[in-house]
Design brief:
Bound molecules: NADP nicotinamide-adenine-dinucleotide phosphate
CATH architecture: 3-Layer(aba) Sandwich
Radius of gyration: 19 Å
Number of strands: 10
CATH superfamily: NAD(P)-binding Rossmann-like Domain
Structural class: alpha/beta
Number of helices: 12
Order of helices and strands: EHEHEHEHEHEHEEHEHEHHHH
Shape: globular
């Protein structure tokens, strides 16, 4: 496995994975909707303009590649009747991969989607993500699926608003927060080993914490300004979410994350792909000043 095409390499998790693949010595290409944005991030990488809703662009991008790594996310304001990258996009990716002889498809999925269907919770976004996994399993192409717990990047890139880390409700079960750089090294390792083909990996960090514990740890070690946790009642988000799709997305993911009884399931992952080392404290302390800081 030498030549890897990354789809979604400009995203929050796609960026560190792209860097780790380059660092590991792979020949990396990026399929990007906006080549200028991708070039600014990765000046030395081969950028191919494309869109997962455009089958021809996928066929052209896949030609000559060994593997495809998929790091897509649902638009947070989408409605079920919209085209979705992980539904129509995945169909197009599989069809193009079959036609061009791709040797492995790797997918960034999610651990918490397994909460779908429990305690009366059902979310159409999770239905799409679960179906994407099924389609890839049935594609006949060797695959690797990654199921990460919550990324530590959520604290500074998604939840940091002004001087507050904004939480929705209280989490009832701790999660094994993972740093994207640790995950990225595991992805790179998976492309180096044969046994990662047709394999599915739980991706979890070194220690478990609830949202409130994690946020406290993050705030204590965040170097740039004094922060506070602001916990809003989940019910308020749910109510507002009836009117505003973006808030509805936040309410649904928060409800699932707050209630999903995550258990540690990464012993095999750590043995095969390496052990994550980054704690929330180390992650926060190492944050460089960015536009969000
Ligand atoms: N946040 C967490 O804690 C967490 C935990 C577990 C799993 N995950 C999963 O991680 C995944 C990635 O999340 P993320 O935060 O990295 O997402 P993100 O920042 O929104 O990145 C999504 C990427 O997909 C690309 N993309 C979107 N639509 C596309 C299209 N039609 N054609 C080609 N490329 C397209 C985007 O390109 P542009 O630059 O052009 O927009 C971007 O590069 C999600 O599926 C999420 O469920 C997240």
């Amino acid at each position: 496995m030498k030549k890897i095409l990354v789809i979604g390499g400009t995203g929050m998790i796609g960026q560190p994975v792209t860097r780790a693949l380059i660092d590991a010595g792979f020949t990396v290409s990026l399929l990007a909707r906006d080549p200028q944005k991708a070039e600014a991030l990765f000046p030395d990488v081969h950028i191919i303009q494309g869109d997962v809703f455009d089958p021809l662009s996928l066929m052209l991008a896949f030609e000559g590649q060994d593997a495809v790594y998929i790091s897509l996310s649902p638009p947070r304001t989408a409605r079920p009747y919209h085209r979705m990258p992980e539904r129509e996009g995945i169909d197009n990716i599989i069809a193009a991969a079959q036609r061009t002889g791709i040797k492995r498809i790797a997918l960034l999925s999610s651990l918490v989607q397994q909460y779908n269907g429990t305690n009366g919770f059902r979310w159409w976004i999770f239905d799409i993500k679960l179906a994407a996994v099924q389609k890839i399993r049935q594609s006949g192409i060797p695959y690797t699926i990654f199921y990460p717990s919550t990324f530590m990047e959520s604290f500074d890139q998604l939840l940091l608003v002004g001087r507050h880390v904004l939480l929705a409700g209280h989490s009832q079960a701790p999660m094994y927060f993972i740093a994207a750089d640790d995950y990225a090294r595991q992805v790179a390792r998976s492309f180096q080993i044969q046994q990662a083909g047709n394999h599915e990996y739980a991706i979890q960090g070194p220690a478990a914490a609830t949202w409130q514990q994690g946020a406290a740890d993050f705030i204590q070690h965040y170097p740039h300004k004094r922060l506070r946790t602001l916990t809003m009642p989940l019910g308020m988000f749910k109510l507002m979410g009836r009117l505003i799709p973006l808030v509805d997305y936040g309410a649904k993911i928060s409800e699932a994350l707050n209630k999903y009884p995550e258990r540690f399931d990464s012993t095999a992952t750590w043995n095969e792909l390496g052990k994550p080392v980054t704690t929330i404290a180390a992650y926060a302390a190492g944050l460089k000043k960015s536009c969000k800081a």
